[in-house]
Structure formats: structure tokens, C-alpha cells
Amino acid sequence: MPTEGRSTLTSLTSTTRAGQFCDHVNPVWGKALRLIGFDKTYVRALGSSLWDDEGREYLDLIGGYATTNVGRNHPVVREALTEFLASEAPSMVQFERSALAGEVAKGLTGRVGRGLGKVFFTNSGTEGVEACLKFARCTTKRPAFVAARGGFHGLSTGALSLNGCESFREGFGPFPETSRFVPFNDLPALERELSSGDVAAFVLEPIQGKGVNLPAPGYLAEASRVCRRHGTLFVVDEVQTGIGRTGSFLAIDQEGEVEPDMVVLSKGLSGGYVPVGAVLLSDRVFRAVFSRLDRAIVHSSTFHVGGLAMVAALATLRVFDEERLAENAKRIGGHLREGLERLQERMEFIREIRQRGLMIGIEFGQPKSLTLKAAWAMTHALDDNLFTQAITIPLMEDHRILTQTAGHGLDVLKLTPSLALTVAEADRFLKAFEAVLQPLHRFPGPGWDLLKRLAANAIRRDAPTTSTTAPPCPPKANEPGYTSLDG
Ligand code: PLP
Question: pTM of the prediction?
Fold first, then answer.
């Protein structure tokens, strides 16, 4: 009943209830969020803005780990979903030919082209990667997979076996010997690995999300040729880079003659609302997997063409076109880059700016001046993850801007905001970033006080083993904060 629906939501958004997260969901994450001052309770979201339960507005440059490409609560997506719910249309019938799924698939294949005429829908990026692994084995009759070091393809067992980030693998091995790695951007290594003749698929992100590592010119096109030469399928994981993130529908659209056998999408396709993913595949792969009537659903999952997911995807594609989001990503990304390059001239901690559309990594490096160099070395001797947290924490605390580090042990600040980001919002970040970075260029000085506190906490780093009933609260002035927020 409508009244019940309203009261359910009201109770869920209260701060006290949010405190129960630590009791029943994940106390370790709850503690980490509290230490870095990210333990807010958000009650409203629109575009790139979030509002907490005290009415404070925040600029969100994490974008739900790159899911909010169209911006949060976009009216077109919201209206489509509301309309679908009000229409009493069926969902999860299973034994039906879903018109909505057909429409989304047509939209995707039309935009991607490259002979990838079929779409297998999933509920997440990980599920898409898992599907590709099965499809590749089935098509090639080969056992092995190759991925790039430093890559991220998800955390389920198969995807994790190809996850090139050690921090995620720890404690979950052993991993099969059929999952192997080559360095990113290393074509001779790829050639050597594939020449063994047992590799079903090379799975690769066009831009590595961890670290925002860009492909060398020509790498992706040549990698796809190497795969073809050795009979290995080329799986391009565009879960993070797809749906306009880098300034084109796919990141490989800017990379010349790349011929993937499968492309994985998810995140941005959701409209920021409903989990959805899609694997685009060639007819050859499709025919090998779904080869007979009794194999028509040999790979599937219960929710994979759910009505809400399909509606969200359809509306998202519409907004993508109507608002020319790829162009905006290119324009605003370029604007941010110019601003960051101007800052780089004055800020010796900025080593490199890696940017494609609105996927941006700002790498920090050892400064030149002697005192700063010593301070940098000391911080890194204590813990590799600290320095960037000394940027993300004050950006949040003093400027109410959400940003994240780009992975364990990397001095990279990462931005993946909504693709509808405005010039004013980009300038707000640039100004805040300068204000946060400037004090770190004086040692000793106020910028380093936070680092000292972070370092102290790094030394006695621990994870809570008991639950806490404490509601979320901001870090106290004398409480050190540390975590390696990832994405
Ligand atoms: N592939 C890439 C490139 C990703 O960035 C991610 C998630 O961050 C995944 C796969 C896994 O997607 P999901 O979290 O939707 O399962």
C-alpha cells in the first residue's frame, strides 16, 4: 500500500538506522568510512550532487564507481522506470521473448558495430566477464586465459583469477594455472604468451581503472591482431570505460582498428538505478555456445533481462544520445585537464595527468625540493597508501567533494563523475584541489599534520573484530584516519 511504501523509505534514511550498517553489514567498511570522514547519510541526489541528512550538498566525483554516467536521478530514466512500474508490465516471465531486451540489444549493437551482433545480458560487470570466459572456452576449445597485470575484472572466482591486483587476491587462492598474466602495454610478452596455443581469451581493459593507465598508441589494435593470429579471442572489458566515459561510446572507438570478439559493458548502462550488464558477441561465439535447441539457455541467470534493468538501459541510451554525453565528457574532461596542467606547473607533487574524457587519474610523485623529498620518502616508508588520502580527506572535509584513490599502493587520485558534469562543477574541484594541495608544498606545515596523523594510524592499523553500535560520526580532530579506498 502507498502509505507503507512511504514509511519504509522514511525510516531507512534516518541516521540512527544507517548506524546499523556497522552491526549487520560491514563494520570494517563502516570504520574505514568513519576514519576518513566519508560516513555520511545521503538522502537526496541529483546530477553530480548529493545531499546529506543535514541538508549539506556534496559534489560527487566518484560517480558510484563510474555508474552515474547520465547523472543521478535523471528525470528521463526516472520517468521511464516510474512509467514501467505504473504500467503493471510483467517482468521475469522467463518463457517470453522480451521486447525490451530486444530493443536494448538493438541499441547496443547499433552503437558498437564491429560485427558484434548479439547481446547476452547480465546483472553486473563481473557476470559479464565470467560469461566471456565460458564463451571463449566453448568457442575455442582451449583452456587458458591471459589478462594484464594491474587490471580489474571483478571479484568472483573466475574474474578474480584474472584480476591483476594482488590486494584483492590475498587469501582467496589458489588460482588456476590456466589464468596467466602479461604486463599492460607489452606486445612482445602477449605474443609469447599466446604462442603457446592454449589461450582461449585475452581479457583486457582498454584503460585500466586501477591507476587510470592509458594504452600506448596502437597497443589495442595490435593486441587484437596478435589475438587473431594465434586463434585467441579478444575480450575487451569496457565495464568502466564504456557508455561514453572516455568521450566516445566505447574507449576502443578512439583506438583505430580494434576487432574484439566480445565487449563487456555494465556500470553506466544502469542509469545509476538498476544493475545491468551486457556482453556483445560475434555470431561465431554465439553459435558455438547456444548451438542447439537444448542449449538455448545453456548460460543464463534469473534476473538477466529483468524489466526494470532493460528500461533503465533503454532510457540511459536515450539520454546518452539526446544530451550528447560523450561530447560533454570530452569537453569537460579537456577543461579539467587544462586546469590540472596549469596547476602542475606550480605543484611539484603532480607527476602525471592521465585523462580520457571523464576518466581522470592524477598521479603524485616525489617532489624535487629536498625537504619535501624527505617528507615524501618518510610517508611512503610508513605506508604506500597515505599520500593520496591526505588529498581525498580534506577535499571531503573542507570542500565536500567526493574523490577516491585509484587503487592500493598507487599515488593516484581518480575522478569518474557524471558525464553531465558542468564547467562550474569542474572549476569547483580545481579550486578545491589547489587549496588542498598547496599546503602540502610547505614542510613542516598544516598539510602535513593530517599526514602525520594518517601515518600514526597506519602504524597501528587494525580492523575492528567486534560490531559497533555507534552511529556514523565525523572523525574527531585528533583522530587519525586511514584507509585505502579503492575503485
Ligand atoms: N571490469 C571492470 C573494468 C571494472 O571496473 C569492474 C568494476 O569495477 C568490473 C569488471 C566488475 O564489475 P561489477 O562490480 O559490476 O561486478
Answer: 0.93
Predicted local confidence at residue 411, as pLDDT? 94
Residues 173 and 304 in one domain: yes
Q: In what order do the strands lie in the sheet with 412-415?
A: 350-356, 359-364, 412-415, 404-405
Q: Which amino acid is at 37?
A: G
Taking only the tens place, the pLDDT of each residue in 146-205 is 999 999 999 999 999 999 888 899 999 999 999 999 999 999 999 999 999 999 999 999
- 180 and 59 together in one domain: no
Determine, yes or no, domain membership for 153: yes
- Clarify whether 427 is annotated catalytic: no
Domain that holds residue 452: 17-70+325-461
- What would the mean pLDDT of 12-39 be, rounded to a whole number? 82
Ligand 1 close to Cβ of residue 163 (< 6 A)? no
Residue among 244, 309, 247, 221 at smallest CA distance from 69: 244
Tell me, yes or no, whether 177 lies in a domain: yes
Is the same domain home to 347 and 231?
A: no
Q: Of 364, 331, 424, 335, nearest to 59 (Cα)?
A: 424
Residue 347 and residue 308 share a domain: no
Choosing from 60, 237, 383, 486, which is the catalytic residue? Answer: 237
C-beta 315 within 6 A of ligand 1: no
Interatomic CA distance for residues 242 and 238, integer angstroms: 5
Residue nearest to atom 12 of ligand 1 (CA): 125
Q: Hey, what's the cell of 435?
A: 587549496
What confidence tier does 384 reach under pLDDT thresholds 50, 70, 90? confident
348 close to ligand 1 (CB < 6 Angstrom): no
Catalytic residue status for 368 = no
CATH number of the domain within which 391 lies: 3.90.1150.10
**Residue 237 is among the residues annotated as catalytic for this protein:** yes
**Which residue among 31, 40, 210, 267 is the active-site one?**
267
Q: Which of 275, 298, 322 is the last residue of a domain?
A: 322
pLDDT at 455: 76
Is 463 a residue whose pLDDT tops 70?
no
Cβ–ligand 1 contact at 151 (below 6 Å): no
Structure confidence at residue 473 (pLDDT): 31
